[in-house]
Design brief:
Layout: E1 12-13, H1 18-48, E2 50-63, E3 66-71, H2 74-80, E4 89-97, E5 103-106, E6 129-135, E7 138-143, H3 152-175, E8 179-180
Antiparallel strand pairs: 1-8, 2-3, 2-4, 2-6, 4-5, 6-7
Helix pairs in contact: 1-3
Length: 203
């Protein structure tokens, strides 16, 4: 019975494509920087701003090219709700008082279609109130943490940029470095006893 030495595969692998991976890193950094510019103010207000409760005062129904329609009761809001026409936007307006006693009327950064985000009165018949974070030096600069849409988009863009940057840096780091592969060997072909050379693995 004859035997043949095993055939060995490559011992290292170099990924390459460093230029494309560098471009991915640069694109990730650009997205990350843009996200940081968008989320800076919400994060600053959330961590360093003053906090208080803001009470709903009215809803503004608006549409491009038409005058705004103020709604001051939930009955008016119900009658003005749009079940199909999404060209209208409903803006909740809230009133709060700063620590210095200054009354401020603000609205969230985003409106809603079909109907407002909040009714004017809660289940107890009292004005709907939500948490607001504001800049004491500029009270009209506000953040409503409970309104998901006001901070989700900037946070998502920032996280996407961070993920692309970290992934791109990792791939770029290894692009020109050989990576050790596990030992790969082909088993010898058995001798069939029929003469001739046994088949050897093809490459």
């Amino acid at each position: 019975m004859s035997s043949h030495p095993p055939s060995h595969g490559p011992r290292t692998y170099t990924p390459g494509y460093a230029g494309r991976k560098l471009l991915m890193t640069i694109a990730g950094l650009a997205i990350l920087l843009f996200g940081c510019t968008q989320i800076w103010t919400p994060m600053r207000l959330l961590l360093l701003g003053a906090r208080t409760e803001a009470a709903a005062t009215r809803v503004i129904k608006s549409k491009a090219g038409l005058p705004d329609l103020p709604l001051t009761s939930d009955l008016q809001i119900k009658a003005a709700s749009e079940m199909q026409d999404r060209s209208w936007t409903f803006w909740n307006e809230f009133r709060f008082q700063t620590a210095a006693g200054q009354p401020v009327i603000v609205r969230p950064q985003t409106g809603s279609q079909l109907k407002p985000l909040y009714p004017l009165l809660d289940e107890d018949g009292l004005p709907t109130s939500i948490l607001v974070c504001y800049d004491p030096a500029h009270p009209h600069t506000v953040l409503f943490p409970g309104i998901f849409s006001t901070w989700f988009a900037p946070a998502a863009v920032t996280l996407l940029g961070l993920l692309c940057t970290v992934t791109g840096l990792f791939l770029f780091y290894w692009a020109g470095r050989p990576i050790d592969l596990p030992h790969i060997a082909f088993a010898p072909e058995p001798d069939t006893g029929q003469g001739g050379n046994p088949l050897t693995p093809s490459h």
